[in-house]
Amino acid sequence: MGYKDQIDLQKLPQHIAIIMDGNGRWAKEKGKLRIFGHHNGVASVRDVVEAAVELNIKYLTLYTFSAENWNRPKLEVMAIMELLVSTIDKEINTFMKNNVQLNAIGDLHMLPEKCYVELNNAIKKTSVNTGMVLTLALSYSSRREIIHAVKSIAGKVQRGELTVDDINEDVFENNLFTNGMPNPELLIRTSGEYRISNYLLWQIAYAELYFTTKLWPDFRREDLFEAILDYQKRERRFGMTSEQVN
């Protein structure tokens, strides 16, 4: 019996977040340039997205390019941006066929103009879809997102739209880039690293963390199913006792 057949479809996480790590190391192991790993990582994205759609996962958020990644060699960054544009262009029909709504979070204004335009066109075109929301975290930094939320709330207080006493967790979440989305219940990281790497720090407060040694280009739908199955075996108590949640 495969992993998918063992999954309880009544206990699926609504939102899965993934740190797609290991493209460069995968390429290096094969004596190739790092961009070769990024190209092969696209196949993993396609397979995982299709698998999530099959299971009727509502939200999938992928750590695509961090704010810190801008510090990588210029040629690699340029190649990644070109790959992003070509991938979005190629996958748009698949998104429409699978009823996937594309979304993006991060400092998107930092993207090259061609990338920014292509991304926004795809977001606009898929906005009519009602299925899974696929969010790309691009030029993303969770710390910057939190600072952005603080500034936004401070501005509302200054303008008299809020009082200090009005500020609570709901207000804060409504000012994050992920406003309107449920927080991830499952966070997956590939490549054997055990770090969060400045990703959705507020949102993953109660997420189950799943780490695998597989490098991202080797991660496929069966690996996603295995992670979900592992998630379903865990007891989510949210500070309560086992007796209270069972």
What does it look like?
- By secondary structure, the chain is of the alpha/beta class.
- The chain contains 9 helices and 6 strands.
- The protein has a 6-stranded parallel beta sheet, sandwiched between helices.
- 32% of the residues are buried.
- The mean pLDDT is 95.
The general outline is: globular
Main sheet overview = 6 strands, parallel
- Model regions low in confidence, pLDDT < 50 over at least 5 residues: none
Order of helices and strands: HEHHEHEHEHHEEHH
Q: What structural category do the secondary elements indicate?
A: alpha/beta
Distance between the termini: 28 Å
The percentage helix is 40-55%
- Can you count the helices? 9
Number of strands: 6
**Taking Cα atoms only, what radius of gyration do you get, to the nearest Å?**
19 Å
Tell me the fraction of residues in β-strands, as a range.
Answer: 5-15%
Record the strand order, biggest sheet: 3-4-2-1-5-6
Q: Please give the oligomerization state of what you see.
A: single chain
Residue-averaged pLDDT: 95
